[in-house]
Specification:
Layout (H helix, E strand, L loop, with lengths): L1 E6 L3 H6 L2 H9 L3 E5 L16 E5 L9 E5 L5 E4 L3 H6 L3 E2 L2 E2 L6 E5 L4 E6 L10 H19 L4 E6 L12 H4 L7 H12 L2 E3 H5 L8 E2 L11 E2 L2 E6 L6 E6 L11 E5 L3
Parallel strand pairs: 1-2, 9-10
Antiparallel strand pairs: 1-16, 2-4, 3-4, 5-8, 6-7, 8-9, 10-14, 11-14, 12-13, 15-16
Helix pairs in contact: 4-6
Length: 264
Amino acid sequence: MKIYSWNVNGIRAVERKGAWQDFIGKHKPDIVCIQETKAQYGQIELDLPDYEEFWCSADKKGYSGTAIFSKIAPEEVLYGLPEHIVAKYALADNYGDTSKEGRVLSLEFPNFYLSTVYTPNAKDDLSRIPIRQQWDPAYLEYMCELNEQKPVIFCGDLNVAHTELDLARPKENQGKKGFTTEERTGIDHMIQAGFVDSLRVFNKESGQYTWWSHWGGARERNVGWRIDYVFVSEALRSILKNARIHPDQMGSDHCPVSIDIALD
């Protein structure tokens, strides 16, 4: 089974460029998780006859949002974070209420849960670090709750480079948005909770980036960041056959990431 994740930075723009059609035709994912759709269900008609579509859009139109397109019918669709977790954490600030921005969408399948997430950005002035210190543990708590029922795969734009291997210029960016101690600790906690960074099972090299600035030919020079991930429960490690990034896929400032898993 091929599971892909891609921050498209606007699904309508990617479709207009022809990049969406190119992606589906080339990669033929069994399931594709999308972040930053910037669209409501019904605002775009995608030619996906083989897939069921599930959308979790922000209350604010043209902002944030996640979606999952699956060839396999799920047993259940779970929108957003559970109410008890939303009530436990402070997930709203002056920028907005992150629990109402379509940032989490999860599907239950017979052998696992699949969740996709679009993590809030810390902002250049780090003014959203406080919300990150609420969001990261809230989402992890949700994943741990699901993991108590069956193994979990979660993927998406986590808006942080975990280690110095995960960005081209770690020294210059130390303590800046996407590479603060607070944000990086969020990934540490995911790993400590028993979730596996799938790419690092197969590839421990630097230069594996998933996002590039539009400035200075950063993508062409591969001056980027790895901020898009697929994590799996430790229980799924044995059926994890590969994990890749796909920097040749154009259409967004992010590229897709994927895993192959072998299911009975």
